UniProtKB/TrEMBL annotation, chains A, B, C, D, E, F, G, H:
This is Nickel pincer cofactor biosynthesis protein LarB. The lineage of its organism: Bacteria, Bacillati, Bacillota, Clostridia, Eubacteriales. InterPro entries: P2CMN_synthase_LarB, PurE_dom. PANTHER family: PHOSPHORIBOSYLAMINOIMIDAZOLE CARBOXYLASE-RELATED, SLL1489 PROTEIN. Coiled coil: none annotated. SUPFAM superfamilies: N5-CAIR mutase (phosphoribosylaminoimidazole carboxylase, PurE). Residues 118-250 form the PurE domain. It comes from Faecousia intestinalis.
Amino acid sequence: MHNSLTALLTQVRDGSISVADAALQLREAPFEDLGYARVDHHRRLRQGAAEVIYGAGKTPEQIAGIVDSLQRSGQKTVLITRMKPEAAAYLQERAALTYDAASRIGIVGPLPEPDGDGKIVVATGGTSDIPVAEEAALTAEVLGNRVVRLYDVGVAGLHRLLASLDELMGARAIIAIAGMEGALASVIGGLVDCPVIAVPTSVGYGASFGGVAALLSMLNSCASGVSVVNIDNGFGAGYLASMINHMGAKP
Amino acid sequence: MHNSLTALLTQVRDGSISVADAALQLREAPFEDLGYARVDHHRRLRQGAAEVIYGAGKTPEQIAGIVDSLQRSGQKTVLITRMKPEAAAYLQERAALTYDAASRIGIVGPLPEPDGDGKIVVATGGTSDIPVAEEAALTAEVLGNRVVRLYDVGVAGLHRLLASLDELMGARAIIAIAGMEGALASVIGGLVDCPVIAVPTSVGYGASFGGVAALLSMLNSCASGVSVVNIDNGFGAGYLASMINHMGAKP
Amino acid sequence: MHNSLTALLTQVRDGSISVADAALQLREAPFEDLGYARVDHHRRLRQGAAEVIYGAGKTPEQIAGIVDSLQRSGQKTVLITRMKPEAAAYLQERAALTYDAASRIGIVGPLPEPDGDGKIVVATGGTSDIPVAEEAALTAEVLGNRVVRLYDVGVAGLHRLLASLDELMGARAIIAIAGMEGALASVIGGLVDCPVIAVPTSVGYGASFGGVAALLSMLNSCASGVSVVNIDNGFGAGYLASMINHMGAKP
Amino acid sequence: MHNSLTALLTQVRDGSISVADAALQLREAPFEDLGYARVDHHRRLRQGAAEVIYGAGKTPEQIAGIVDSLQRSGQKTVLITRMKPEAAAYLQERAALTYDAASRIGIVGPLPEPDGDGKIVVATGGTSDIPVAEEAALTAEVLGNRVVRLYDVGVAGLHRLLASLDELMGARAIIAIAGMEGALASVIGGLVDCPVIAVPTSVGYGASFGGVAALLSMLNSCASGVSVVNIDNGFGAGYLASMINHMGAKP
Amino acid sequence: MHNSLTALLTQVRDGSISVADAALQLREAPFEDLGYARVDHHRRLRQGAAEVIYGAGKTPEQIAGIVDSLQRSGQKTVLITRMKPEAAAYLQERAALTYDAASRIGIVGPLPEPDGDGKIVVATGGTSDIPVAEEAALTAEVLGNRVVRLYDVGVAGLHRLLASLDELMGARAIIAIAGMEGALASVIGGLVDCPVIAVPTSVGYGASFGGVAALLSMLNSCASGVSVVNIDNGFGAGYLASMINHMGAKP
Amino acid sequence: MHNSLTALLTQVRDGSISVADAALQLREAPFEDLGYARVDHHRRLRQGAAEVIYGAGKTPEQIAGIVDSLQRSGQKTVLITRMKPEAAAYLQERAALTYDAASRIGIVGPLPEPDGDGKIVVATGGTSDIPVAEEAALTAEVLGNRVVRLYDVGVAGLHRLLASLDELMGARAIIAIAGMEGALASVIGGLVDCPVIAVPTSVGYGASFGGVAALLSMLNSCASGVSVVNIDNGFGAGYLASMINHMGAKP
Amino acid sequence: MHNSLTALLTQVRDGSISVADAALQLREAPFEDLGYARVDHHRRLRQGAAEVIYGAGKTPEQIAGIVDSLQRSGQKTVLITRMKPEAAAYLQERAALTYDAASRIGIVGPLPEPDGDGKIVVATGGTSDIPVAEEAALTAEVLGNRVVRLYDVGVAGLHRLLASLDELMGARAIIAIAGMEGALASVIGGLVDCPVIAVPTSVGYGASFGGVAALLSMLNSCASGVSVVNIDNGFGAGYLASMINHMGAKP
Amino acid sequence: MHNSLTALLTQVRDGSISVADAALQLREAPFEDLGYARVDHHRRLRQGAAEVIYGAGKTPEQIAGIVDSLQRSGQKTVLITRMKPEAAAYLQERAALTYDAASRIGIVGPLPEPDGDGKIVVATGGTSDIPVAEEAALTAEVLGNRVVRLYDVGVAGLHRLLASLDELMGARAIIAIAGMEGALASVIGGLVDCPVIAVPTSVGYGASFGGVAALLSMLNSCASGVSVVNIDNGFGAGYLASMINHMGAKP
């Protein structure tokens, strides 16, 4: 069942569990307080996807502590984003960690079988956008999706993009990743009929302002069906694409 | 069939139509050039939703001309966004226009029957956000969705939001609309397991900078599953929510 | 002869005129001081194009005074940009003024015969960009160019742009005008081999920030051969395109 | 007595001290000029709290010199903020310094007994905000306050925050520290009836712009009773919270 | 008793009320849903101060509806901020409204007797800041505070400020309101030992950027004990100052 | 005598006046409190120039009240900046006001005889900058300076500027006023050896951002001897230029 | 022939090649997919200039792979911009690379003979702008142009610029490169009658904001014929100047 | 004689030198072209102060080359700003260089005797502003001025500033240097009657934005007689102050 919280609340409404008992469950279950972190053991119940660790600004010891807590609570695969090489080295001595240095993604435990409704396409404007793209693609794969990668298909050479029209047309969701002027999202958005998640990247220089130019370009897209996540936020795009690609499973 | 373009391309691949004939069809069909506008008659085929008129910066005569062109091409219902009262008055003398002054939405023709997979929730932080919310809600309704409105459920009075937890939990997609600090998207995003489309509004003053504060807040949401559209872009959110709410119909 | 200043300087170098006499000519000729304006009678000599009046921030009386000064100095056609209707009304009683209200362009005197090397294409992303486009197109026409107008060819419906590939490919210079995300310049820049002058417009809302989104997008274009002028600066684009379209005439 | 300056001025008004003598006292007492710094020995009299050293941009020698000057003037405990490890190492050889590397807080001398009216709560949105939180908490402790730490209670997992409702409800002042979208301040502000001091942090990436997103979010909080200090300014928040927590002692 | 929610929760903890009954009370009491607004009848219990109406962006009819709902729930005095003259005129025909046009503050019902611990000083840098100052002062008075007004005491004529040193020194909280360079907050903050709430105003021109210069100046104040609210947010400052001025009453 | 405050302080140091008496004089003299304004009667003593009224944000009644207060204190000529036509009309019925509508400068009383050391040059880049230039020029004239006006000498027609090299070279101080790219200040600064006060104006459009482009340009001037005042701040430039032009009179 | 694509399309129109065959050619020819890059072998045909490698964000291995792919496709000279020394060292062991460390330009293969219509002038405001200038100059030389370098001719010493008036007057296109206030482009633009391509540089400090001041200054240039490329984009300027300098060769 | 250029031009006007000879002198004299720099030997004639070397972005070899050129042209003392330690080390082996590491100021040759009209005061808000202050003070000393240093007199401890009122009152020009909120310039500007040159510094953190907060604060100063130079531009302030302090010497 996809959402235990709703189940719990339904039981309350139906009277099959008392309010006090439900409150007790909610109060006891949700998290483990490590002092520096309140680890959310409840998230899979509440949101249908397990807790993910945002590695930036956490010490290797803190990351290891949270992984440990999650594993103790029964979570099999743990995704760690923005993980520094030092933290990866520290963790690799303690757990079965796969680490991709370019995207700084760490994965503890096995990749699940894909169970999504269709395919997710991850497209980039250039070669330099690949690290962000891999963050998105690996996130989607950890969450059980089949992913198609189309890299370096920026609009300055439109034929490179049009050559992959089939893959674009067959996607359930497309993640369009680009720095500089970020036009990729608009051009793709005008071609397809599935949601396009635009990820501006900090690739560029001068008046790209660390991704602001691409961000504004994407927010102002004249194509419909395009929404935007934070600059370089490959994880957020992968997570959302997975959610959309699992809509068929919802009741 | 949801996508005639794919059909056409499939025929090409299968050899049931020659490339030359397909090219001819593509070249002839797509738009009518009115001089001031190239009206896209092809969009329903390509993207599964009919052409929408962005009313800002167009004269009443231009809007009427485009409506006329679309109707001649067989489109039954035409949505016009950001429509000024003058344009509405002008059009009302020429066509069956329904006009909502607060959201500046005009609809020519009948509303379709809802055919989406589930419900779309449109929530606002405050009363002042309602015009943007209606742009989103009416857009979704024109595109065939059932819509639940939850207005004035901002986070400063959390119990007002929590009282509607049932509606939130039952949605296929949620549109979270807020100005000022825009925290509504994050709080909803942390509670539910469906896509949340965040719409910052220009409601506020001083350091809200016309919606920038809410925009940045939403882009930086610590909740997963949240993506963002342009400030005050109720239409974009409604369109995307409808797309997500029709995923079940995709092959 | 296209540049009298160079001629004058050449005479100085060749000894056919003394430095003192040349200095005298330069000192006497260049401008008439009206108190509120120093009207440049020398510009056609120095730059190959006559003085143009920037109408914003000038009173109708000042504009009329400058027109008068230019006509007295022998200039046949005078272009006035950003001219308010009041100023146009005032001037129309005093001179043979043609006025285009949408682009706020006023022209005193006859349009010259086109004498450029080829054609200039003026393309816009949408209908709302037309006023800026007309400022560019009329400027180019006043300066002696043949102009092709392609309006509403934005990238969200790529086929509308590709249908005009012939006109684009045959241009000596292209002016790409767009608001919102401004992707038009990059897409055109990737298709053609002539200079593309990008004009961001203030068309849009929210995070378009009055044209900043399009401006940044264009400055970061991944296509080569693209340069940018100020937001809404149709005049500047038309002037530069004309300069490029008259290169063949240069020695 | 909380404010000797007022006392002095009162004596002047009452005639119990001549203006000249008062002026002399004010002129002689207030500071020691070290050339590179004018050390304020007068601050406890004027403001009820001793001088604090802002360590950034000062050399280890300068910091040591100011500590020395303060100790000679009778100040028992000296707080040093933004202190680099080199400066700490240099000072530790010369004085009884306690140094917290994460928050870069140095304390020379003993911690005072808490003498505030109640408790101050320091809450953070995430683990990465802890260094700023410790700057606030240690500042408050140096100034004589009891402090409760609630770390990693961000709004994306609302139950983690609600589980500590008791501590929040029992505070005299709450310091809400968050980066990214900064929604924590608004949510807490809507739940409690004591002043909430919001501290945006530079935690985040992309469109967080080094804390600007959280700053704007907090400035636009729709909850009442919330005010804001500079990004990462844990010290300022701790100081102000202490001031509020000592209001009962004021006459 | 200042906080009924705490009381209710305490009863739950003590067992004098069942969780279910408490939940019922919370669920039933909190707000009335008017469709366009969820009026918070619970706020006085939860936060110790009654609901305030933010008038901007609400129609006169909506404001009247909310006033009516609050009065029906037993609230005697209703404060309305940012109220347009039209709304005031509309309401004055229906209720006992006092309206101050400069500050756009409306008050329905009688002013309460001051019950704060001491006095609140409201100081402005110039004459043009008075409307914001009155919003702060009237808010504080509606919430039961004695207010001292010191207007036009900007730092360019320091003696004007120093002449009121007595009033400043005797305050429980000071609201420092200034546009332009906003130095007033720092100078006051350096002189006194009570909390200073800084309110930047949009007074100024050019590089004041609608109050941004003053806002940044205040956020970077080198004086301790200073915190900041949004530009022109007199209400927020008055509310917070009242909260601080009622600390003595807290248990 | 140019500075009575210094005189008073010197008397204190020399013992020719007691500290108490001096304090009394300072306390009594400085300002008149009108409630909405603290009128500085002391400024001529302290700063060598009489009080000036900043008209923006003041009602006609307030302006008249301050003029009255200044005249009662013996000030003969009163300068009012940013004065709206309504205020001028109101005042003209009550006092001998000269009003310049373009620069919004009002002058009550007679212009003084010039007593500066030399001449002040006021130069503008274009015709549209004249209102700001007149604010500067009239301010300088009210303060007793001889002013030379050089209008419309922008760098796009360098010969127009070079033709006035004599006037530039003979100035004691130059006020360089320009909008758009603001290059005028740098070019003048490179030619002369007296202080250049740069005034960016809000003249321009698009990426001039209301004067920000010119402001930044001037702040980054590669010429030495250039300093900058606020956008459109003709008054500030005129005041400072007058100060510099009266340096010879200082002891 | 300068444009094979046009040729191909002409053949299609004339019936000398079938649409299917043309599509096949387009589909097969254009690029080689290396996984991390889609190398555009088609660009010379489409745009008249060979593919250029943007070195930033690419690994040495990726750059070498793309060079290899281009050479295999028959391209003789390959330009690499923003190339790090490590990448240069790596490539120098594998190919005939010329590398300029200051401008980070790498060139594989021989420089072509100049075949442009005239000369391109590259001018800088200061010595610190030289790296960007060399990027522009070397790009232009790789594309077959004669280049004249005028370095350190900033407007603060106008005679340094005027001394090179002959070179400026004789150019087909001028690249004006400057940081700080960027006035160089306006002053040159006012003197000459050929296109001026302005390149803002990140040279400067403080309020130059990494080149933003120069960028805005150039966008707002009051001189006609000036257009702008991205900050530090010497390559883009060199490419565009070359395009203009080869206009005579166009049919 | 202070300005040889004027002298030369006067000779031209008087006929005592021919235009041709004058032109020759101007053409020959002004600068030496080193390829990477055009060294201005003419500046002392034109502007009354010798050439200064801006060290940032120049190699040690380039700096040494320019010093050499200036010395050959007869300049005795050479000021080098923003000089890196490496460049200083390199130069110290070749010339008599005095180097101040904190302010990165290098001086080749002897300091001149002060010949200004009075004294220049350099005041800072804090200890961290001293490097910028020394850049200003040393520049002023190199240009022949007596300098009084008042460091750490920020407005948060007003008595520290007021204790130095005598020095402030006796200055011909004051340089007010501050980071954070930059209020120092306004407070000093309100106290004195000489020009105040405000220098914002990049000292601060968070919302100081590298000096922008102080810059805006200073530009919006409500005190008259205040003008601003670029962030951290101690040199510019010292140069301008020297110019003002030598006004008495002007004819």
